[in-house]
Amino acid sequence: MTEKAIQWQKTCENYFKTLDALQKAVFVNLMENNSHENEIRQIRLTLFNVMKQLRAFTHPNAPEKIAAFESLYEIIFSLNTLKPHLSDLAIREICQREFKNISEQLSYALKNQTADSLPGQMDALDELYHTTLQVVSKEPIFFLFFIKNLVAFCDTLDTFFQKNPHA
Question: What's this model's pTM, rounded to 2 decimal places?
Fold first, then answer.
C-alpha cells in the first residue's frame, strides 16, 4: 500500500471516528434537558477539517466517496433539528431508551463498517412513533422526519460500506 493510500485510509478512519462523536453528541443533546450545542459545534469544526483533508486527495473514486461522506454528515446533523420539539420532559423520557439504543448501534456500525444491526433499532422507534408519539406529541411530524432521516442514514451507510469495504 502506498503512503498516499495509507494516509487516505487514516483520514477515512478519522472521519468515521469524528462522525461517531457527532452522532453521540447529537443523541446526548436530544436525551438531556441541557444543551450540548457547544460540543456539537466543536465536533462539526473537526469534521469540516477532516472533510477538507479528504477533498485534498486524488484518490480513485474520491468524489463519489466524499459525496457519501457529506451526505452521512448532513443526515446526522439534521437529527439535531428534533431538539426544539423535545421541550416536554415526558416525551424525552419516552424516547430515551430508543435514542440510547440507536446511538449505540450507530457507533457499532461506524466502528465495524456494517449497518446490519440498525434496522431493528429503527423499527423500535417507528413502533414507538405509531403507538405513542403520534398521539402524545404536540408536533409528531418532527418525529416522522427524524425517523426518515435515520432510515436515509442507514441506507446511505449500508450502500457505502457495500461499495467500499474497509473504506
Answer: 0.91
